[in-house]
Write a structure and sequence with these properties.
- The longest helix is centred in the C-terminal third of the chain and has 30 residues.
- The protein is an alpha/beta fold and 375 residues long.
- The N and C termini lie far apart (50 Å).
- The structure holds nicotinamide-adenine-dinucleotide.
- Nicotinamide-adenine-dinucleotide (NAD) binds next to helix 5, strand 6, helix 6 and helix 10.
């Protein structure tokens, strides 16, 4: 009898170093990869004590690029690539949220291949193999960017925010020290926590799902349900912070091969046009797509719900909706400034190719109805 599974591949080239205090290993890990580092972070983080002490660990005159801002742009990549070239750097260390990590990933290639970064963005030229090694140190617990081949960048001239995906973008080492996340404000903790949950759920229900990612996804869901509410209650809870850093890591590994689906496709216009942080933009539709996809999931849906301690997908959707409201994330489209007349344009902008990975077909009519209910 023929097997009913389709062939699958799982590849994770990034070395992963995880644990409280792991940042002490930064000099040794970076020293293996190069002798002339550049340190990358964002303008807000550079002042925080735990981040401010990192460049000195790499050497006295380590250049610091702190011009990354949330929703990084191709222009920020060009500025960082320029600094890398000027200083003759041979390794890059990025400490920050997904914005800093994604900016550094692209700059590690653009610095060697020549810019502008716009050339390689949203349907542009393919990058070749040349890139610098990258040590990625996440300070949020959500994007999983430390283990994915994606760099999500905006091009303000085109009004587009889109992922550039390349094997070179897998960081060489993910150095994950949950202590770096303790300073996250509650709003960032909530939004990034929902990003981790969305990766796990979407990696699991993507049409390209496969057994390794399924296993990682279910554990990531379990971790989010064990720890997100605790960390929102007390940001200094070290056990809960570590649990969320692990959830984000496993969530990243769970979606990087199958890729995301409808929740992420719909998040892009909410971020690009209504300025919602990425995780909050995913949270907007997550419970609604859990209900929508339930009929297509069968027993796999029950296993997903059970990982969260729920009986079935309907109960899982109820729990996600409750957690989202209690976390203080927006739950309606009118709250973020969407009016009924805006819905056709948002529906159109939601049909990103990731939509094709959704386990149940999403039609423009079904999405219009969902968005009307969300108003
Ligand atoms: P972010 O990097 O945009 O940071 C958000 C804010 O939180 C910033 O102001 C930052 O200074 C602050 N912050 C971060 N860590 C902090 C800490 N420990 N203490 C205090 N403040 C802190 O947030 P993010 O959600 O991690 O990243 C979002 C970006 O990542 C988006 O552009 C999104 O599209 C992208 N993303 C990428 C992937 C990927 O695979 N590459 C996956 C999901 C999302």
């Amino acid at each position: 009898m023929a097997a009913d599974s389709t062939p699958w591949t799982y590849r994770q080239p990034t070395e992963i170093v995880f644990g409280a205090g792991a940042r002490e290993r930064l000099p040794e890990i970076t020293g293996r990869l190069g002798s002339s580092p550049v340190f990358v972070t964002d303008g807000g983080l550079v002042e925080l004590p735990l981040i401010a002490e990192l460049p000195a660990l790499l050497g006295e005159d380590t250049p610091v690029f702190a011009d990354v801002a949330p929703n990084p742009t191709v222009g920020m990549v060009d500025a960082l690539a320029e600094l890398i070239r000027e200083r003759g750097a041979d390794v890059v260390v990025a400490a920050g949220g997904g914005s800093s990590l994604d900016c550094a990933k692209a700059a590690c290639s653009v610095a060697l291949q020549g810019g502008p970064a716009r050339r390689y963005h949203s349907g542009g030229e393919a990058l070749d193999e040349r890139h610098l090694p990258l040590v990625a140190m996440p300070t949020t617990a959500g994007t999983g960017s430390e283990v994915t081949p994606n760099s999500v960048l905006g091009d303000p001239e085109k009004g587009v925010k889109a992922p550039v995906v390349h094997d070179n973008f897998f960081p060489t080492t993910a150095l994950i020290d949950p202590e770096l996340t303790h300073s996250m404000p509650r709003g960032v903790t909530a939004s990034t926590g929902f990003d981790a949950l969305s990766h796990a759920v979407e990696g699991y229900w993507s049409r390209n799902h496969q057994p390794i990612c399924d296993t990682l996804a279910l554990r990531a869901v379990e971790l989010v349900f064990d720890h997100l509410e605790d960390v929102l209650e007390d940001g200094a809870d070290a056990t809960a912070r570590e649990g969320m850093s692990l959830a984000a890591l496993l969530g990243g590994m769970a979606f990087q091969a199958p890729q995301n689906a409808a929740v992420h496709a719909c998040s892009f216009p909410f971020s690009a046009s209504y300025h919602l942080p990425h995780g909050a933009a995913c949270a907007m539709t997550l419970d609604h797509f859990i209900r929508f996809n339930a009929p297509a999931m069968g027993e796999r849906g029950v296993a997903l719900a059970r990982a969260a301690g729920c009986e079935d997908m309907e109960r899982l959707a109820d729990e996600v909706a409750r957690m989202k409201a209690e976390a203080g994330l927006p739950t309606t489209l009118s709250e973020i400034g969407v009016a009924d007349d805006d819905i056709p344009a948002i529906v159109e902008a939601s049909f990103h190719p990731l939509m094709d990975n959704n386990p149940r077909e999403v039609t423009p009519d079904a999405l219009t109805e969902m968005y009307r209910r969300l108003l």
